[in-house]
């Protein structure tokens, strides 16, 4: 925060405005242990930072589900080349990650890392049905480098997303950009979806769609993108789409800017009244 109380908004280190991390059921606390933070770097300069979710650990390899924004250029909506990915775990360990798979239409990606065993993974349960405006859900995110966990509570609504992807759903959980790629879970710790960011509402991709996409990735293991991912990242990257970049869903994000705290409060209260 600058002298005079000016505050940086829409940065990667901005914490959730209402953090309920110390007031959560045990099942939610346990589920939060599968949340990590990730950052990508271009020549030593940070490119993007967000949250992610541990989804599997097989032998010495662990997989993380996150947002493809971690490795996507904002101007052309394509995969950026020559990025280094770092993963920061809850036990204060950090390691180098490798992009394994991505789908830019749904803005999801899988990053893997080796030689660090993780016992926790997201709890997928397709039988869970969330009732709009009734069942409480929790959005969880992790701040890059510090690894601080953040949580905010809300409900799922029937509102339509303003983003291009029509299969997204909306919750009233108010997150920041640091929460992109983090999980939306119910009070029993079940994984409901992966969060994205919008200034006025919080979209999430439902878990059933994520499971469908991950199943396709596991079954096919083939490169089908019109631009072969081998040319821009690691040799084992799989791109699960053939859509031209000009026709893909767009995932715009606000640029960081300075605000006075009073204007932030007014904006947040206005957001609350809409919901």
UniProtKB/TrEMBL annotation:
InterPro entries membership: Peptidase_S1_PA
Top-level taxon of the source organism: Eukaryota
Protein's organism: Eragrostis curvula
Name of the molecule in the record: Protease Do-like PDZ domain-containing protein
């Amino acid at each position: 925060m600058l002298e005079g109380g000016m505050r940086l908004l829409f940065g990667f280190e901005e914490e959730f405005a209402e953090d309920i991390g110390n007031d959560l059921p045990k099942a939610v606390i346990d589920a939060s242990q599968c949340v990590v933070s990730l950052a990508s770097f271009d020549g030593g300069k940070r490119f993007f930072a967000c949250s992610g979710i541990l989804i599997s650990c097989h032998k010495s390899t662990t997989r993380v589900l996150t947002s493809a924004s971690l490795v996507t250029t904002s101007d052309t909506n394509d995969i950026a080349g020559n990025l280094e990915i770092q993963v920061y775990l809850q036990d204060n360990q950090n390691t180098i990650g490798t992009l394994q798979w991505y789908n830019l239409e749904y803005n999801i990606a899988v990053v893997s890392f080796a030689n660090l065993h993780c016992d926790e993974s997201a709890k997928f349960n397709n039988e869970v049905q969330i009732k709009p405006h009734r069942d409480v859900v929790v959005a969880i995110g992790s701040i890059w480098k510090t690894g601080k966990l953040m949580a905010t509570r809300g409900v799922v609504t029937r509102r339509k997303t303003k983003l291009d992807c029509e299969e997204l759903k909306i919750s009233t959980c108010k997150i920041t950009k640091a929460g992109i790629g983090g999980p939306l879970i119910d009070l029993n710790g079940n994984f409901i979806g992966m969060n994205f960011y919008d200034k006025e509402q919080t979209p999430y991709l439902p878990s059933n769609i994520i499971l469908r996409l991950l199943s396709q990735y596991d079954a096919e293991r083939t490169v089908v993108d019109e631009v072969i991912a081998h040319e821009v990242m690691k040799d084992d990257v799989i791109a699960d789409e053939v859509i031209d970049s000009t026709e893909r869903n767009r995932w715009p994000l606000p640029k960081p800017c300075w605000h006075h705290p009073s204007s932030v409060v007014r904006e947040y209260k206005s957001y609350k009244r809409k919901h």
